[in-house]
Write the structure tokens for this entry.
Amino acid sequence: MVIYYPTLARTFGALCMSEEKWPVSEISLNPDKRVLFLTKDLGLIQKQLYEGLNLKMEDLTIDDLLDDINTDVMTPAWVCFDYDPAKIAENAYAGLLHDGRRVFESHALINGGFEVIVSGHRKGTGSSRETAPQCEKWSGIKIVIAASFAPIHERNNINLGQLMGNHDMLERLQNGESISLNEFTDKYDPVTKLILENGGIFPFAKELKANKIKLPEVNKIPHPMTIVEKIISNKLITEDKNKGYLKPGDAVLASVDGGYSHEFTTAQVHEFLKIEYGEDYSIPNPPKFAVFEDHLLYATGVPRFGKFTEKIQTLRDLQNIFQKHTGVRDYSAVNGVSPGICHQVAREEFIDVGDFIQATDSHTCMGGASNALTYGVGSTEYANLIHNQFAFVKVPESIRFNLIGNLDPGCTAKDVILHILWKYAANSETLDRSMEFGGPGLSSLSMDERATLCNMATECSAKTGICDPDELTVKWLMDRRSSLTEKEIYDAFVFADEGATYDGGVHDIDLNKIQPMVAHPGDPDKGIPSDPTNGAYIKDLGVINIDIAYAGSCTAGKDDDFAYYAKVTKAALDAGLKIADGVECYIQFGSKTVKDLSEKNGWSEMFEKAGVKLIDPGCGACIGAGPGVSDNNEQVSISAINRNFQGRSGPGKLYLASPLTVMSSAFTGYITAWDPELFS
């Protein structure tokens, strides 16, 4: 059965296949259009939107502009319930709040007549959701100006044919200058340049298929490579089918070993493929790909999402249609219960050593714990790779973290990555880089703990995270892969070559010195974004009472995370304690496998005895779509999820912390680091 949605076909087609070619060879500002500056002074944004105020770059500094605008701000989860980009644009920037109220009311960006949007550093952090750049493009924005861009967001802009420039270029444009298209594109590799000049990934793919584009040759001279460089070189698609030796910035096409989408994204993938390749489109290799029903299982149980029930069901229906149409692997919910969160299930079931996996979610990088190259892409890029069987790859720079020593009993890998976010990511040292984890201290971290490090590489605005393999890698996979032998796993190991270049440097992380940490909620009204880089030691916080303790998500719903929850809960029960008065505590399983383990070990019964509310596998409060979200501005949450963007998990203040800290805090009623003697 095929369902046709004429609105999407009309709006998407009008922008992607119109007679008006974009971009043009000479870029200048349209005198009938405006420039919108996203300033730290949110009131100034409102004056531009509603009072007709026009600003010029020469009257501002980059420091006046908003930094770290995340994709949740641009298109909050509820906006993504619409898969039609034109509808999404109606609520562009719905997540930007001032004193709890929307800065951008419905249609504000569309009605403002803007063609340029301007911000500060690290535009588009967070989720890989392509709806974020879509909301700008379908509002009439053609040029995006920022000091720097988060890598996935930048890629999504490129795939949509959106031009990105800097503040100096904007000043020249506002002073009446025309700027050559080349000036916008020359900073990119030859392939990205071609994608932009052709208006996006779909037009590029068609030109490539028609043999109108010749790809640059790949270097054949051997040199030392990092892990990521070696994996990409193993997957190269070249005319002569010979191995290449890659370096950062090289633009290549590579084959992928698999991929997946979920109900938030599959609808767009399906519709885009119909529009580009016809109602009867097919994909060449369905078993390599999968769909998951995990993100919206509990959304309709959240009061603010109840009114979107019909839209959510439409997304489910379209995913089912896509799965039946293509024959990809099906991980749909059964009787309302999901097999689990896509990233956790994928690493449990089909991500193997040396694989190259892409999926429509930024936390795809969690698979790097298995020595695989995994990262998120937007719906357009995923639709292209699943149909055309190639992924465009710009080889990233790398930064290496050598772990030494052992963690304190009160710390987990979550504290390690919060430390890296605070000390390295906040200074953009990890930006758009592959984060390699190795060193003797890595062996002290379980595979689940390594998955935590890799999962949150996207919070570092990194390209991906990836770990050195070892015997533990083999044992973990052998327990889950009946089709693999030890030799096959060992033979697939990928290590960096001696002498490989790390543009981000090689950094020792002494695990002995890691302390229990949180990422605090920031203060967006004062220009301090809600961001995982806002690190602080718990010992320096003072007393911060909590209302909600949430444990779970892809980051913290794994086997070892549940062992942490169980350890704290047992100690509390032995001391005669239950969840503190006035605190709601939730634990959500990352997969059915994790749930089965918890029940087998008696943990689930113990949690419920302590007053914990257990939630079946799936996403939930992490994306504001399930039990555990705050419901007012005054509530304080301590959470084991991966990001604390304003409004992501309700309107309250959210602190990120380790599984140990979250459970300890649930029993004390305030943010508390774990200590084996805590309840003595």
